Fold GTP cyclohydrolase 1 type 2 homolog.
Amino acid sequence: MKLKDLTYFLESVAPLSYQEDYDNSGLICGYPDQEITAALISLDCTEAIVNEAIEKGCNLIISHHPIVFKGLKKFNGKSYVERVVIKAIKNDIALYAIHTNLDHIQNGVNWKICEKLGLKNPGILSAKDGLLKKLSTFVPVEHASKVRDALAAAGAGKIGDYSDCSFNVEGFGTFKALDNANPFVGERGEIHQEKEIKIEVIFSAYQQNDIISALKASHPYEEVAYDIYQLANAHEKVGAGMIASLEKEMDEESFLQLVKEKLNAKVIRHTALTGKPVSKVAVCGGAGSFLLKKAIAAGANVFITGDFKYHEFFDAENRIVIADVGHFESEQFTQELLFEIIRKKFPNFALRLTEFNTNPINYLI
């Protein structure tokens, strides 16, 4: 299939608009109409990964971390980033990254951590705002159901675990068709009054083009009147970190042993134990220290993440146990997650999981 078929699907699962401003998710190297025959999935994109892709006949590498994070001005092979890009281009291998946008979805990186730990009822810890918009439009009464159904089919009207949500109010619209118009109702040159329904629906901002196309295709009028508003509401299904519950309370030491085992962590750096049972747990794949206050506010007993700095451990203040399992250790199952997501949609496409451990950190035990 073509590369754009796969990337379009991945971006419908984890839209690029969900990534952080500093991120560089998306197609880094390659062109959308390129034919792809096999893909290699990895956490990082290194020279070893590109060599593995060549050996396994993969002309696409899908990594969690973007190989190009900052602007590159020269390509002369002086850094591993430049060497990776050069080798990929020379061997006609496309590079695609799906990073913080995959972190931020309901069934993304943090959900996978919860699954591995057997945690229940996971929900977003810090919901993102600025991702929602509202559409208001005006439809003749007898056509309202058709328009509502079309908008819902395009993805509008989803609020939490509910779909087809809309607000409707009846009123009268007026207009005068000019000489070149072809009015659905009314006559040219005459003021016409039509009984209409105002329909309002919420949608994710990245869906706007599809929503407007569905509106225009289903609406009977030659000229469709509508308004779009940016909402300040948080998107409860999109955001950083997760909060979840243990099926049965555990003491802190036993729970940390469970985490060490399930996440294959060689070591866990943690704050002093509080002596309280563990019932609620916050998680954040990668570097999650920015979520500590959110984890405490959510009532988490333990916060599992990576990359905490020395002084940041003091901020626990005996209110929570910080468990730093390591950046790689917290995200290692992202490869498995991507494999499952793609395999479900494209069961006959050749997918390979890397055989390399790309963790740059080694432990002397």
About this structure: DSSP finds eleven helices and 15 strands in the chain. Residues 73 and 140 are 56 Å apart (CA to CA).
